[in-house]
Each structure stands twice: as structure tokens, then as C-alpha cells.
Write a structure and sequence with these properties.
The chain is about 40% helix and about 25% strand. The chain has 4 helices and 5 strands, in the order ααββαβββα. The protein has a 5-stranded antiparallel sheet with strand order 2-1-5-4-3, with helices on both faces. The radius of gyration is 14 Å and the shape is globular.
Amino acid sequence: MSDRLANAPPDVVACEAALKKLMDDESSILTVMLAFRDGRPFMVRPRTQPNPGRLAAMSSALSTLSTTVLRELTGNDSDLTLIEGQDGKLLLIPIPAAGRLLMLTVHADGGANLGRLLSYSRHCAASINAAFPAHLQTTAGTATNRMPA
């Protein structure tokens, strides 16, 4: 764990509750994970049996690539990465309070409603961000809007 996370860790119970709520609210989600930027899993809630280490490593590589591309094009970091295919969707959302060292990875089936998936996932990321000590919290990169009904 990085110094930042070791010195000011999130409320693990709140993080687990946020992941559980996301899974409970959206049945199309197959796996939800908090992963470190260096490719190690932190928390995983699967409906299927993914390889958490492999998914975390691939999420890390994809996040790094998307951030690099956006920095080249716009000078800014990526706030969300989305890959959409016929049989699945993958979202990556960095957690600002963790210094972007932790990211939410959401894998859903191909039939997932993209708008709902994005909204619920952003709400989950905001809840995880809020699980960090107050002096680290920021709304950059996370939606703070209300959860849809």
C-alpha cells in the first residue's frame, strides 16, 4: 500500500458497503473491484469468478494508457475510462482522495444500460472518495449528483 493510503486509509466498511450497494442496485454488473494503480486488487465483489489479480493488472494498464492519451491531447488526466463491446462493458474511475492510486473497476454484461451504469458507478466512486479522511476528499473526477431512482 502506498504511503498516502497507509497513513490515511479509507473506511474499509464504507468502501465495502459502497461496492455492495452498486452490485445490489445494478444486476448487470458482473464484478466490481477497487484496485491499486500498480495492478494489485484491494477489494473485489464478483458475481462470476474472475481472476482478481489479472483484472487489476489489466485495469491498471488500461488506466495508465487512457491517462497518457488524454494528457497528450488535453493536458488533463482521465476521470473515467469506458470500453464497450457487444458482450460487456468495463468502467475505470480513479478515486481522487486516494491520490488516484486507487481505482474503481466495474465489469458489466453487454445488456447493461450505459447511462444507469455510469450514474451508479460514479455514485459508488463518490461514496468511496467520501470514505477517506476529510482533508483528502475532493470531488474532482467523481460525480456528486444524486443517485437516480
